[in-house]
Amino acid sequence: MNLHALRLFTKVAELQSVSKAAQTLMISQPAVTIQIRNLEKELGLTLVESKGRGISLTSNGEFLFKQAQRLFDLEMDIENKVEQLKFTGIEELHIAATHVPAHFLLPNWMAKYKQAYPTTNIHLKTENSKQVIEQLLHYKADLGFIVKEDGHHPDIDYTFLMNLDYWFIVPYGHKLAEQEVLLQELMNEPFILREDGSSTKELLISLCKIHKTIPPKIGLQLNGINESIHAIAAGYGAMLAPSIAVSEFIHRKQVARVFVKNIDIQRPIYLCTRKNEQHTPSTLTTFKEFIE
C-alpha cells in the first residue's frame, strides 16, 4: 500500500475536504485527488464520495480511515519514545484508567513502582471504559485499567486482576436505608448516573432489562464517582457504586446501603494492553509486579 497516498487520504477524511487537506499539506488539490484515486484503484475500493462542497466517506473509507489513524498514531508514538530516550534517557509510561482503578487502586501501585523505577515518568489519565480502549488503540496510552464485564475489543488483551463488590446506596436516614427491596422499588428513586460510555451506567440499564423493570429516573448526571457519592451524602438520590469507594462514607454514616433481592453484584477489573505487542521493561512486565 502506498503510505504517502494513505496519509493524504487520512488528512482528507479528517477534514472532510480535498481542498482543505491540500491547503493544510501545502500541495495542489489535483495532486491530492490523483493520489486518492490511485489508492482506490490499488485497493479496489471506493473510499470517498462527493458531498456538496466537501466529501463523505464510504463504509470502506470509514474503516480505512480508522485503521490509518492507528497506523500514524503508532508512528508518532515510536518517534516520541525514541526522542525521549535519545535526549533524556527517561522513559514515559502512559496509563489510562476508569474512575475506580484510577482513584482507589493505581495511586498505591504507581507510588511503589516509582520508588523502584524513579527515572520512569508516569502519566495517568482518567476516562470512561470506552475512552480507555480508544486511548490504547491510538497509542495514547501504554496500559489501560477498566471495570467491565463484556464487550471486549478484538485488538486488546484483557488480563483479569480482581473482582470488586458493587453496592446500591442512598443517603443515611433514607426510607430505603439498610432495607431489602425489589429492584423495581429502588428504580422509583431518582438516580445519580454517570456519563454515556460509563460501564456502570451500562450495567445498571442491563440489570433493569434482565429483571424486566423500568430504567432508573435520572436525577443527576455526573462524570465522577466522588462527585456522585458526595451528592448522595448531601441527601439526594440513589446510585450504584463500588464498595471500595463508599465503605468509608457508610462507616461515617453519611450514606447507607440498600439490599436488592436476588441481586449481588461483583465486577471484574482488567489490565488492558494492545495485542501482539512487545513491551519494554517499564510497561506490562514490571508494572504488573506492583499490582496487588
Structure description:
This protein folds into three domains: 3-67, Arc Repressor Mutant, subunit A, CATH 1.10.10.10; 85-162 and 269-290, Periplasmic binding protein-like II (D-Maltodextrin-Binding Protein, domain 2, 3-Layer(aba) Sandwich); 163-266, D-Maltodextrin-Binding Protein, domain 2, CATH 3.40.190. Helix 1 (3-15) crosses helix 2. Strand 1 (48-51) and strand 2 (54-57) form a beta hairpin. The longest helix is centred in the N-terminal third of the chain and has 29 residues, at 59-87. It has twelve helices and twelve strands. The strands form three sheets. Strands 3, 4, 5, 6, 7, 10, 11 and 12 form an eight-stranded mixed β-sheet that branches. Strands 1-2 form a two-stranded antiparallel sheet. It is an alpha/beta fold.
Overview features:
alpha/beta, eight-stranded mixed sheet, 292 residues, Arc Repressor Mutant, subunit A, D-Maltodextrin-Binding Protein, domain 2, two-stranded antiparallel sheet, 12 helices, 3 domains
What's the pLDDT, averaged over the residues? 87
Q: Supply the helix-strand structural class.
A: alpha/beta
The assigned CATH architecture of the largest domain is 3-Layer(aba) Sandwich
Broad CATH class of the largest domain: Alpha Beta
The fold-level CATH name of the largest domain is: D-Maltodextrin-Binding Protein, domain 2
Give the overall shape, derived from the CA principal axes. Answer: globular
Largest sheet: 8 strands, mixed
Helix-strand topology string: HHHEEHEHHEHEEEHEHEHEHEEH
Oligomer: single chain
Poorly predicted residue ranges: none
Distance between the termini: 45 Å
Total number of beta strands:
12
